[in-house]
Here is the input.
Amino acid sequence: MKMLNKIILCALAIVSPLAGCDTDELHDLNINPQALNKVNMNYLFSAAQLGIGNGGSDGDNRYVDWRTNIGYCAYWMQHLASAGGGGLTSGDKYYINVESDDSPWEHYYSGTLKNITEVLKQTGPGGFEEGRRKNTREAARILRAFLFQRLADFYGNIPYTEANAGIEGIFKPVYDTQESVYKAVLVELDEAATAISAGNADDGFAAADMYYQGDITKWKKFAYSIMLRMAMRMSDADAATAGTYVTKAVAGGVMTSNADNAWCPMSETPSLWTNQNGISRSFISGDGGQSRIMSKTLVDALMGTDKLSAADDDPRLMIYTEGYNNGTINVVDPLLQRGLPNGKDNGTLDAYYATLTPPVAAGTNAATVFSQINLKFLDRSEPYMIMNFAESEFLQAEAKERGIGTVGGTAQSHYEAGVKGAMQMLTLYDASFTVNDAQVTTYLGNYPYAGGADGLKQIGTQMWLSKWMNWWEAWTDYRRTGLPALVEVNYPGNQTGGKIPSRLLYPSYEVAVNNDNIQAGGTENLQTVKVWWDKN
Here is the structure.
C-alpha cells in the first residue's frame, strides 16, 4: 500500500514541471498508456482511511500524532506534563515547534486528501469508475468532510475550493474562509449521508473499508455525528445554521452505542512505518520514547473531590495510568497517584518536590514521582480512535441544555449515556479496562447531573476526559467552550502571553510561496488569533 501511494505521488509530481503544456497535452498526459490513473480505488480508499488513523499514508506514521496531537495538544490540554522545554514537549510551555504546526497540513493535504481526491475524480463524472463504486465515493466524501473540518478547526481559513488541484495547474490555491468551508462541508456531509446506501452495487467497498467493513448504517451514523460536531462548534458563531444541522443530524441518526465508534485497525506487520499505531510508537521506549508523565490537572480530576478516599474516584483513574515506579515498588494505590503540574522546569520542579508529603529529594527523576500513561494503551497494534459515540451524547446533552435544534430525551439522559459510553469504550485497547454498569452508576450517583450552567460545566469536563489520546479534539472542544477551566501557564519566553494557543500556524513553506492568498484570506498568522467559531 505504501509503495502504491508513493508511485501515485511520484506520478503526480512528474506533472508539476510541465505546467507550461497546453490543455490537450496535459489531458493526454493524464491518460498516458502507463495507466497510473487506473489504480484500483480500493487501495486509495484504504490508504486514505489509514492516513486519517495515523497520518502515515505518505511517510512516518508517528509524525503527525507525535508532533501535534501529543507535542502540542496533550500538553495544552493538561493531560500530559513535562519538566522539559521545547521540541516535542513544546505545548507544556506554549513554545512554538515548527514541525508541530506544519505536520497536519503537510500530511493531510499532500497524502490523505490527495488519495481521496483521486478516488472522487475516478468515481465521478468521466472517471473510469463512474457509477460502479457509489458507496466508495460517498464514504470518501465523508472522509473528505472530516479532514477539511479538522484542518479548518486547526488553522482557520484554508484552501478548499482549489485544494489538491495541482494536476489542474493550481499551485497557489486561494484561501476560503472557515465559515464558507464549514457550510460547504455540511452540505457535502448531508448529500453523502443521504446517497450512501446498502442498495448501491459496489463490490469492493466492504473489503476496502477499514472502519466499518462496508456497514452502511454505521457510515450514516458516522456522517451525521460529524455533522452534529460541526453544528455545535459553530453554535456561538451562527446559531440559526447550527440549530438546523443539529436537528438534521439527530433526525438522520448519530452514533447510538460504542459499536458505532470509528476505529482504524493497526497491525505489527507488514510495515513499521505505515501499519502500526503512531501514538503508541511515539511513547514506546526504544521507538519514540516520549515521556509518559501525566498532568496534575488530569490526575486530580480523576481522583475526585475527596482525595483521601477512592470511593468517589473516576473508574478510569487506574486505567489511564499504571501508577509509577518509585525505584523500590510500583505505586498502584489510587490514593497515592499524583500528576506533574504543567509549566515546571528543573528548578521549579525541585521547589515543588519540597512541598510534597513526604518531600521528594531535589534532582529526583520525575518518572519515579508522577503517574504515567498505562502501557496497555501503547501496543503497536492498538486500534486508533477516530470518533466515538460518547461525543455525540455529550453534544446532544449540550444542545438540549442550550436549546439548540431539536433533540429528543433530556440533557441528563444524554449526559449519563455519554459518561457510560466514554467509560466503557476502552476495552478495545485491553480487556482489563472494563468498567461495569455498577461502577458507572456509582460514579453518576457521586456526581449527579446538575443542569443549567453547572450542567454545561459537567458536560465540558466529561468531553475533555473522554478525549484521552485524541488530544487535538479535546483542544478544539476547549477553545469553543473554555471547559474545563484550565489554569494556563505563563512560562518565561512563551509565545502567547500565557494563553493556550487558539490555532496552529500556517506552515513556513506555505507562507513563503502563497503568502498573497494567505493575506487575502485575512487570517493573521499567530497562535493567539481565534478561528471563526471561537467566541469563548
Q: What stands out?
A: The chain has 20 helices and five strands. Residues 2-214+491-521 form a domain with the Serine Threonine Protein Phosphatase 5, Tetratricopeptide repeat fold (CATH 1.25.40.390). Residues 1-36 have pLDDT under 50 and may be disordered.
